[in-house]
Amino acid sequence: MKFYGINEVAQKFHLTKPTIRYYDQQNLIPNLKRNNNGERIFSASNIHTIQSIECLKRTGMPIKEIKKYIHLIEQGDSTLEK
Asked: Which fold has domain 4-79?
């Protein structure tokens, strides 16, 4: 599995590194891993999540609601009614 560093992810989405760190601190990026140096490493799934966050932000959805939405997605089909 290929992993990407925070610099690559920041460039891809035109985000600042502090913004990405904030998303992590807010638990918006499930299953985010760190390498042996403690640096965040992003999988394809993590990148897809960031893409979703950015899309939802553009609709005006607040971070609090995005967090709920991502949590529901993480739980799977059992939350479809919500």
From this structure: Multidrug-efflux Transporter Regulator; Chain: A; Domain 2 (1.10.1660)
